[in-house]
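User: Here's a chain of 507 residues. Predict its fold as tokens.
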Amino acid sequence: MSRLLEQLSAWKPFTAIVVGDYMLDQLVFGNADRLSPEAPVPVLHVQRSEDRPGGAANVCLDLVAMKATVHALGVTGDDRDADLLRSALVSSRVNADSLVTDASRPTTVKRSLIGLAQHRHPQKMFRVDLESREPLSAEIERALIARFESLVESADVVCIEDYNKGVCTQNLCQAVIRASKKARGGRGVPVLVDPAAIEDYSKYRGCSTITPNRTEASLATGREIADDAAPEKHAPVAKKLMEDLDLEAAVITLDRHGALLLEKGKKALTVPTVARQVYDVTGAGDMVLAALAGARANGISWPDAVRLANAAAGLEVEVFGVVPMSIEKIHREVMLREGAHGGMNGKVRTLDQLLVEVAAHRNDGKKVVFTNGCFDVLHKGHLTLLRRAADEGDFLIVGVNSDESVRRLKGGKDPSRPINNENDRAEMLGGLECVDAVVVFGEDTPAELIRAVGPDVLVKGAEYSVDKVVGADVVQGRGGRVVLVTMVDGKSTTAIVAKAREARSKA
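Assistant: Prediction complete.
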């Protein structure tokens, strides 16, 4: 197991402060089936609307999904949109007590009009921005700094999410960085910055790291680099950022090409990512900042922190809009990436690997199904059982008796069993489309495995009664179901083996 996977297995909750531009994202959905008679523009017949936290709030929600206690520090107006934003944050388990009200400016609102042509696919038609970009007054700055100083001693990490809306002023950013360095008896709290698209980054000087994309980095350093340039070509840009801002590390995100990391005193490191079928970059930068923050709060090295952030951002770009990725889902993604380089064999899992996947699927509200057996020689009866089991939920786990276990169970009647070894049996099961994961267990029964997995549905053949199904009490005790599947007559491994021996003896 890699060091990153070990640390993810030991992941601990942490406390974060997110300083930045807080916004309310309003999504207005409707049907866009006709043009206006007054002008050649589509008419949106509104069906519903949603209010979601946006801007720096996205980082807060990402951090909550990674088991953080989060304090939001920023500014809202004195209006109904501020109430909606605070309510949305609190309902997402973010502490909004440090959002300061500034009656001189509106709450920043991004209102997106999303139409469905012929009731089919949603498409953003237009966006209306309600905002002020005026710098904060000295009074509001002082209020924010005071609140930050009261929180920083309890924080493990600080994030600055700057959208250039006037909140992240020079005074505020520098006060945050100074207070963070002095915190915890001088040991300090790391400050990670997702910068605005601006030419002057001096207000971030002294932070731990900065995470611009390639365009933002070029703008801030005045060094133009072609979009198709190899990742390592960005090293001079990262070096200039390091020198100008006195950073611990610089991370330049390179879209589908991954990221470039430069640590103080080390050579630049390119961290590749995985190509994705769907590509919506909305929220990817927020996800990178949050994942880096969570990793550093958990003592993970910069290279592994960037690998983790790449995996998290890769998941983010696969979905439409902004969707926080849980640490369980990110852990699973890292595990699958590691497995692609020899860590795992197809769908075959160790128990530790399996529990990561189960946690990720359960966190997404998916139903976990379990069945088990020797599966010595696959036949139609097995396939019928497995297909029926898969229909009962979203993620089918098959527990397979080890060779030693099969010998104990079958050896008395037939010393030749198992016909196929446990690796072959597990791999054959993993080749079935209806099976999502396979795990080999060495006990005579899967009782301990079922207790560890805690499936929502337990499936067995109908030759058993529910009271005789191993693990039924565990599953039902946690509110799950036991499903008995009618077996296919005359289909069994024992019958197949006997028939083969009979044919061979006749030959």
